Amino acid sequence: MATGWAGDGAVQDQIDATVKDAIKRARSQLPTGPGLERCEECDASIPEARRKAMPGVRLCVPCQEAHDREDGPSAGYNRRGSKDSQLR
């Protein structure tokens, strides 16, 4: 379904591009390299299962949860802009 000047697959292409960008951004934030045996914040032991599941892990679960709460939700990108800005 074409809308205005957009091609037939433009909407799906935009959705695909947004998903690919989000995946790339999430992967870039993953830790890399060898994980630590002890948490770098509280010095608690990091279980081997966590180190295997999360290569490059640097924090124990409680410290990671606290860190995630501090960061808050990540804002996505709205490539199309808001409808309000298009109507002005």
Tell me how many strands there are: 0
> In angstroms, what is the radius of gyration?
20 Å
What's the main sheet like?
A: none
Helical residue percent? 40-55%
The fraction of residues assigned to DSSP E strands is: under 5%
Alpha-carbon distance between the two ends: 26 Å
Shape: elongated
Pairing-aware structural class of the strands and helices?
Answer: mainly alpha
- Give the rounded overall mean pLDDT: 81
Separate helix tally: 4
Looking at how many chains there are and whether they match, the oligomeric state comes to single chain
Poorly predicted segments: none
- Secondary-structure element string: HHHH
In short:
This protein has 88 residues and is mainly α. 47% of the residues lie in helices and 0% in strands. It is built from four helices and no strands.
Using brief descriptors, characterize the structure shown.
88 residues; mainly alpha; 4 helices
Description:
The protein is mainly α. The chain has four helices and no strands. The chain is elongated and about 60 Å long. The relative contact order is 0.13.
